[in-house]
Design a protein that fits this description.
By secondary structure, the protein is mainly α. The chain has 11 helices and 5 strands, in the order αααααααββαβββααα. The termini are close together. 41% of the residues are buried. Bound molecules: ligand DDH. Ligand DDH binds next to α2, α7 and β1.
Amino acid sequence: MSQPSAAQLDQVRAAVKKLLHQPDYDDGSAGPVLVRLAWHSAGTYDVKTKTGGSNGAGMRYEAEGGDPANAGLQHARAFLEPIKAQFPWITYADLWTLASVVAIEEMGGPRVPWAGGRTDFVDDSKLPPRGRLPDAAQGADHLRWIFYRMGFNDQEIVALSGAHNLGRCHTDRSGFEGKWVNNPTRFSNQYFKLLKAHDWKKKKLANGIEQFGEVVEELMMLPTDMALLADPKFKVWVDRYADDKELFFEHFSAVYAKLLELGLERDASGKIVNDDNLQEGYKS
Ligand code: DDH
């Protein structure tokens, strides 16, 4: 079979939409954890060595899936298993990334351009080493070191960080606890507004981990979130996104699409040309 048709992909999109409603899970939606799955699958990319990225869906295997940074993402993968069973022709790498853009849009966010064609072939020589994903206990220098490696600039780092409008931290996954905004299943620019509006104070959790909290509402910020306020170059974009939701949506859509494409080279027709291992299902 050649590349899936638009009609086939629409069927997958519809199935993901149906699956998002999960009354017994977290805040009632699988959306946030699906977004984190796609981001962590893509965010291992290194522009210099051209290793990592969403192609290959390497997180299915222990080397990547067992990285403590990916704790909890097995829930996201499990949510998507019935869809993979229903549509076996789609690769995991395409399914994970597509599910995240469906989730973002369904939760009220922008439509993110998405193209398929990723394979599930894991090239052992290109396995990303652990430690490529950000450490929330660090500051602005660390953010630049991690995200410049993927090929992003300061504006893009802040726009991407706006994904913390969604979901929450879990003590048993990252050690941090709580959500950034009151409605964590609604995509908006609230994260930037709250970052500026509150007087965030350092708070030590029972497990010894330090995060930031405030007294009025039980919301939280990570040290890396606070770094966006403290660094003058990042702060320019925090201010702009807090004031202008449309601008944030536009920039987020562009940068999130770029994230999902890291490591993929396409020809004019959109076919991925730098992967010799096109899965049976996608060979034309
Ligand atoms: Fe994040 N994130 N993230 N994040 N993230 C966590 C949760 C979620 C960092 C740390 C954490 C991005 C950037 C950063 C989402 C999306 C994105 C948690 C809590 C930590 C810790 C995990 C847990 O306990 O379950 C750090 C550090 C950074 C950074 O340095 C910039 C980006 C770029 C995205 C994105 O999607 C583009 C989402 C969604 C969640 C909520 C997950 C959930 O289960 O809910």
